[in-house]
Amino acid sequence: MHSYTRDRAWEVLKEWTESASLIKHALAVEACTEFYGAREAERLGLSGDESAAFTEKYAITGLLHDFDYDRHPSLEEHPFVGEKVLAEQGWPEEIRRAILSHADYSGVPRETHLERALFACDELAGFLTACALVKPSKSIFEVEVTGVKKKMKDKAFARAVKREDMTQGAELLGIPIDDHINNCLTALQARAEELGLKGTAA
């Protein structure tokens, strides 16, 4: 039985993705999705190896959700091409289904906690990254919930990010938007160095 690990997922991502910003996005979504996986594992009373395996599944899903995007960015192809490749490689259906469900147009409803977490984290991770990069220090540590909410109202800022996906994501997870923003900030801050969001010291 092949073990589908985070390391293997990283290899797949690197093999398919040349864009540095897309790799950073995958890492950011991984960090946020993994945060919710760890929280859900705790809620379910999992511990030790069980908890680690459960959480890793969330990390892998976040890491791979856009892995085919560099080569197949069209709505006809992404994420369908990627899902097919993952199926051929024998990745679990649960992960593949979550990846399909993050695209509104795929027709796959978001039913599991994993599917909801991925959707909730995808746009927000990108938005929080954008919020950090407009700071003079380019530091995620300077991003605050109130500032993020203000930027959400500013239609000109990070125009491509769908605001309704962020609010709908929080609703799907059953938490207030402020908590969702705060959770994702915490997750990104924990991996700021790797994401290039540590910023310059003032």
Automatic annotation (TrEMBL):
Top-level taxon of origin: Bacteria
Keyword annotations from UniProtKB, A to Z: Hydrolase
SUPFAM superfamilies membership: HD-domain/PDEase-like
Domain HD: 38-124
Pfam family, one: HD
InterPro entries the UniProt entry points to: HD_domain
Signal sequence region: none
GO molecular function: hydrolase activity
Protein name: HAD family hydrolase
Originating species: Terriglobus albidus
